[in-house]
Amino acid sequence: xxxxxxxxxxxxxxxxxxxxxxxxxxxxxxxxxxxxxxxxxxxxxxxxxxxxxxxxxxxxxxxxxxxxxxxxxxxxxxxxxxxxxxxxxxxxxxxxxxxxxxxxxxxxxxxxxxxxxxxxxxxxxxxxxxxxxxxxxxxxxxxxxxxxxxxxxxxxxxxxxxxxxxxxxxxxxxxxxxx
Length: 179
Fold this sequence. Notes:
Helix content: 10-25%
Order of helices and strands: EHHHEEEEEEEEEEEEEEEEH
Largest sheet: 6 strands, mixed
Number of helices: 4
Distance between the termini: 43 Å
Structural class: alpha/beta
Oligomer: single chain
Strand order of the largest sheet: 3-6-11-14-16-17
Strand content: 15-25%
Number of strands: 17
Radius of gyration: 17 Å
């Protein structure tokens, strides 16, 4: 079960109709401008600065956001990315969802040394454990344990942590490290 706070829509309209009663228009406008600049910036340290300083995201050291990554525009401060993690091209990280009868807000916690493949979507209230790998084009709609390889729509565990460790050990034979 995702960890989200739920708020009922009021006034006979869907929750998105009342968006600026839930979040300031000026906050959304500022966040949108910062995110658009960051999506096209090829300099990872600049993106991390923009996310930390202007959006108040918790970004670990050496975390890397590829081009076109789209963090949540309404509540980016509810996103945490651990050190040395990679967020792939055109990935969307949501900390909110507006539905017909309610809206939900939830923290997104991405652990250390996590790889998220291109074109993935992470829903609010999700935790991805340290060392997990998420394949491209995945809808992450539930928590992902540490060290697993997961993918699909909706996400499913493809290899357990133990299977991944075994595969990694056998693939490293003859591999030379970066200098």
